[in-house]
Protein: DUF3810 domain-containing protein
Organism: Flavobacterium alkalisoli
Amino acid sequence: MKKKIILSILLFVQILIVNVLSFFPEFVENYYSNGLYPFIAKCSRTFFGLFGFSVGDIIYGIVIFFILRWLWKTRKTWRREYKTNILSILSFFSVFYFLFYSLWAVNYHRIPLNKKMGFEKKYTQDDLLAFTKRLIVKANNMHNLIEPNDSLKVVNPYTVSQIYDKALNGYDNLSKVYPFFTYKTESVKSSLISTPLSYMGFGGYLNPFTNEAQVNYNLPLYNYPTTTCHEMSHQLGYASESEANFIGYMASIHNDDLYFKYSGYVFALKYCLRNIEKLDEEQAKSLLPLINNGILRNFEESEQFNDYYSSFIEVIFKGFYDNYLKMNHQKDGLETYSKFVGYLVNYYKEKDL
């Protein structure tokens, strides 16, 4: 009982410490994100990378089993032992919270990536429109290099394992320009729960306890390279989803492989079109004739995938994840993903695509 009381108290102490750390991003950046975390990540990926399957998914399954078992065993004890049961729950969350933040999640409070790279995130509608038109030209050119018939969609010829192997090349090239994107010790795996992830509406996730990058193997392959690079960016300690989108895009277009470059450019184009559509639906429609039909067919492939796995489960889990992001100082919740458009527009203001 005494141990449970101590752990319960420590939960609130930990929450206080983490919230205090959020006011000191320089400290987090220097001493955790670029200090302690790289050592933790290397050890985790070195060990768990030895296994060809997702250890993290199995751990989650075991933990869920024991939680359900505990709930079943205590179902009749809540009237007389509610204090003990509440302490048990708080003790569990105390340990969970400690591992979650100490192993990875303190990265939520590091210096924003755009500040490290020296550009703003705000943009005007005109800025977005001008950039999107440039991006359309680039995406069309990339499509033409792969598929001479501009009406045919791109079909990625690689297996999932080959995509994981090739993803390292993009990070190797990107790190020559920006050393803080150096990626070492690979641990990228197909999630064992890919079908549930599909119904939840997620392309993958990082397991913070094992540092395994988990990718949903059901995804359309044309988009798979950038999703893989996105999850790998979380392994580098970039917790923000907008930053992970930007880094995933950058690692894709810096890859020597054309299919990776194509994946990155059309990934960015899709987000830009969505953001324009939110501002002016007619303007977004006016851009569609400028895009190769083959690219639009790839977009349709993604829409068909989303429609196939659409369910009430996605609404529930995305609602949960939206609140989770807001609790971790990503005030825009799920909208954070699309905020990476601001990174694109501002990064390329004085650069070629």
